[in-house]
Amino acid sequence: LAKDAGKNRYQMFDPESDRKAQAHRKELELLRHALDNGEFVLYYQPKVDLENGDIIGAEALIRWRHPERGLLAPDAFLPLLHGSELENAVDEWVINTALAQASAWHDAGLVMRVSVNVSAGYLLAPTFYADLARALHRHGNVPPAHLELEVLETAAIADMEQAVAILQRCRQLGVHFALDDFGTGYSSLTYLRKLPVDTLKIDQSFVRDMLTDADDLGIVEGVIQLATVFERQVIAEGVETLQHGAVLRRLGCRLVQGYGIARPLAADAFPHWCRQWQSDAAWRALTEAS
Ligand code: C2E
Ligand code: MG
Ligand code: MG
Ligand code: MG
């Protein structure tokens, strides 16, 4: 930090910030150990098409199987990685692990797209494209179009020029892109027109509250219309009840994801869930109603 402040300036030694920096280094060490030690796992949350009941994909969501504290959600540790080298390593691990899983499912006849979340830092990192190409090559039986990268809307617009260039390059490999948490990041229509993404993911906060809040309903409707105008796909996250599903379907959003369909599942529970979903009577009725 003192170095960043410039060579000609003196930095007061601050015991408090020094203690914090040390604690952070320690946490990063533990996370590095967790990665090397295979303590990270991916859970998979299904994405379905309410028009026909098809399972269209699964989003990979990281968890830390902590030896003492149990299964930790990403909010408990991802923020510590923010902007570090290790964040890139974790994101790369996620891409490779999700592709390995997709590859195994492919061989078992479970063919669908997997989505992974990519941090802004990694998306813009110089190694990103080569890492991605290598991962796709390594799992050659997975069509690149079966990999979707979810990028935060805020990340994509933080460095527009570079994001557009990277997205274009990666799309030539065949991978898809979705703008995650869409609606939370003030992206103007001009931005959206420039960004080569396939899908808009309506942020769950709007979806969750749209049944009781007219403004949120308006935003959900607006994003669906935006997607139509710009010829992008649209998916709603945070679909917690049948009623959410019914409203979305009526508004023209057929792709959904949320606790109401399924919570994120351990990889080995996923195929079983798929078999059960086919016979889920309540959602069946919804997908058949018109
Ligand atoms: P996200 O990408 O927007 O993922 C959706 C989050 O909402 C997930 O939380 C999911 O479990 C949760 N969720 C899904 N359906 C519902 C619902 O119906 N109701 C509610 N209340 N929540 C629902 P999770 O797994 O805790 O992940 C949180 C965030 O952490 C993700 O938000 C994503 O931004 C980040 N993240 C997760 N895994 C990874 C990863 O492998 N790499 C990176 N870079 N980020 C990740
Ligand atoms: Mg996501
Ligand atoms: Mg999201
Ligand atoms: Mg989120």
UniProtKB/TrEMBL annotation:
Source organism, top-level taxon: Bacteria
Q: Where does this protein reside within or beyond the cell?
A: Membrane
Domain EAL span(s) in chain numbering: 24-278
Q: What is this protein called?
A: EAL domain-containing protein
Native organism? Vogesella indigofera (Pseudomonas indigofera)
Q: Recall the taxonomic lineage recorded for the source organism.
A: Bacteria, Pseudomonadati, Pseudomonadota, Betaproteobacteria, Neisseriales
Part of the full-length chain shown: 843 to 1132 of 1132
